[in-house]
Design goal:
The chain is mainly α. The protein has helices spanning 5-31, 39-54, 61-90, 100-112, 115-132.
Amino acid sequence: MTPSPLIRALGSGALAAAIALLMWYGLVQITDAQLNFVAAGVGWAIGLAVEKAVGPNGGSLQVKVISGILAVVSIFVGSYLTLNHLWLVNVPTFRGWLSLEQFSILYRAQFNGGRGVIDLVSALIGIYEAVITPPGEPAAPDDRA
């Protein structure tokens, strides 16, 4: 029994999101730099995995919504992990994990400093890539015979 396109989209998208997040976090660990532009690649990877899972004619609004939600969650988690790592590296007295309130304060301060615009644009590109990449309507049959 073959799983439905929605289940395949969710499974492959979640796997791609996990792998892309690990790669993003690994890059942050190696460089000790904030690489939120990678969010665009995370969204693209999710969209591509979903497209491959549902096939050229399996796209629907629900599949695009799944891709978009996975991208939003993944980009949020990636931004959180990035800021948490940089906070650990740059504030020697800090140990553990940022609370959501601390993350929110740091992210807003960064946004007000101008860096947040780049992050926002990268996140929007990533979400766009996740949503637009899965196939839409089935292709019209080729009339050439």
